Amino acid sequence: VQLVESGGDLVQPGGSLRLSCAASGINLANYAMGWFRQAPGNEREFVAAVSWSGEVTDYGDSVKGRFSISRDNAKNTVDLQMNSLKPEDTDVYYCRLVAGPFEYWGQGTQVTVSS
Q: Do 37 and 48 contact (CB within 8 A), yes or no?
């Protein structure tokens, strides 16, 4: 199983980015998926999660109303649309999959919000 994040970049405050997590070796349609973020020296923080069907979503308090998680089970991907970005959103963003007793993480993608 491999998860690969992409879409991280340098963006100005107030800007937008769309992150994508592509999976191989597993059918994501059977599992809920999540996005987390982490800065050096900090604990990993929950950002967003989506149910296997895409019908149920959940967000961390710091991103509610600005970020949106979605999935395309046909493409085996999960996206994170990030709007109204703030400097404090600067982090490495990871997607996470829990499949039974197994937990998988991608390598992360860097998001930097700065003018």
A: no
